[in-house]
Amino acid sequence: MPDRLSALDASFLYLEDAATPMHVGGVAVFERPREGFDYEQLLSLVGQRLAYLPRYRQRVLNVPGHLARPVWVDDVDFDLNYHVRRSALPSPGSDEQLYDLVARLMARPMDHERPLWEAYFVEGLEHNRVALVTKTHQAVVDGVGTVELGQLILDSSPQDAEPHEDTWTPRRPPSATQLVLDAISETVQRPGELVENARALVSDATATVDKITDAFGGVASTLRTLISPAPAGPLNTHVSGGRVFAVVRTRLEDYRKIRAEHGGTVNDIVLAAITGALREWLLSRGTGVTATATMRALVPMAVLEPDTFEFSAAGLVNNQVEAHLVDLPVGEPNPVLRLKHISHAMRAYTDSSRSVAARAMLKVGGFAPATMHSLAARAAGSFSGRIFNLVITNSPGPQQPLYAGRARMTEMYPVIPLARNQALAIGVTSYYGSVYYGLNGDRKAVSDVGNLAAMVEDALDELKGAHR
Predict the structure, then answer these.
(1) Distance, CA of 67 to CA of 193 (rounded, Å)
(2) What residues have CB less than 8 Å from 343, skipping those under 6 apart?
(3) Which reactions is this enzyme annotated as catalysing (predicted)?
(4) Could you give the domains of the chain?
């Protein structure tokens, strides 16, 4: 039988358009070691690890007449140099120039005639640094058979690239006739598939999402029925094709101090800092903010079933991600009360029979947050954008340094994709004593994303200085 895309994976392809490319990104910054770290070394490292990621050498093949969902086939013309690209900033390149490059790269849809991932080796950064910018389509990373590339190429100690012989031999793709025969065979067994496949091509985004939400156990469908539309605001607008990107660097120790003073979890404090920043951002734009005003965040969280104790490092086999809706109290002027409100709202999720899997995630090899942010984006993609204002993903990372080859990673920022009517997405990752925020915004609706990033730092400082 053909390796057919799941209904969820196919939906990400159906819903994608030029303004809303559905890939998840990451920006990793590395110190260049004395012995150097160049494009050829990265190329060798990626090529060496691709044997563990068969999906990264496969492309999507559509079925004639859309009689069935597309299938995965080996890319007989696979070209590693096409997917791992070399780029450079005018030396000495600043961080701001890097973020401008990231925004432009993330705005570009990927070629569906090739495997759906790209990596950019960015040279020219000041202070002898290089960056790796990755893009992976949401249809690719499922956390079971395929993890994110950033997880696979990072190691807990410096590694020399080992010589390897690529023995991969692509399988010939099925003919158009075979694709049709396979589709007919499946249709005979499941007649409703033909109608659903046709509907997916002509339906609007909400109808298509309705069809595929059962991939998450019906949670999104139930919430859409019970939850009112998100509060109106500047973040829910039809997005353009342009993007802006900004980052926030903070110290993990500050979150621990705030937790000791005011309670809650590190994730609660992250949400409280973002809430405070959103409040100031709205006020700076002259938007009226009442005492009861809220903004609704979709917060995907990794969970474990009650009988599961930890992830399997070989592909996060038992992993699940559930998306929760959290009303952020942007109308509350007191930072401590904002944190208390959020802690109370989040406790209902963390106290449930399914535990949040943060500690288990830290035991997974490589940089698990890269995969977890991809899974979080998949979970968010199963919801209608009408019921939330923004997406916030947070995934804890290891507190020891990681390396690509012999280059030590110093910073890591997630880049979460935008939906059609959602102008801001924030990814957060902790790593080696720091907490890193990546803010991906629509260039028209959130052109001042840099100001919002600075306000996150201000909101965290406000919490640090607050007393009971």
Answers:
(1) 8
(2) 263, 264, 265, 268
(3) an acyl-CoA + a 1,2-diacyl-sn-glycerol = a triacyl-sn-glycerol + CoA
(4) 215-399+416-424+432-465 (3.30.559)
